[in-house]
Amino acid sequence: MIKNEKQYKISKKLLNEVIEKVNKVKTEKDYNIKRKLVAESLEDFKEDIEKEIRDYEKLKTSKSTILKERSIRDLPSMIIEYKIANHLTHKEFAKLLDLKEQQLQRYEAESFKTVSFQNLIKFLNRIQLDLKIKKSIIKPNKRKLHSSSSD
Known about the structure:
The protein folds into 2 domains: about 5-60; about 70-125, no CATH class. Helix content is about 65%, strand content about 0%. It is built from 7 helices and no strands.
């Protein structure tokens, strides 16, 4: 996931380099099965980069203030999406979350996956991101059932 303008610019540059490399491999005189595999691998990589660029551009240009519904495991990336969709600078976002810029950089580098649950809730409250649990299925733990019945 592209998280900021710097990564966006780097990704655009990388995309151009990959396109050049694909074209070079495809036009080499000794285009054999090995080169074909390299070209296909580069094409896959190119498609991944293009998707990330499209996703970032879509967030940047979106007029919607509603992030799409997802699993709870996607909460950390939703914080980054909020920053992008609201056109916040790193400094502005750090201030909003009541963090030092350096700490925000660390969290972003780790996609907010190392944030404690308590801080995650605090951040979600600060950006006013509402969570709704649609459905919760509680399944009994079979191991506990078996162990308690044998007591």
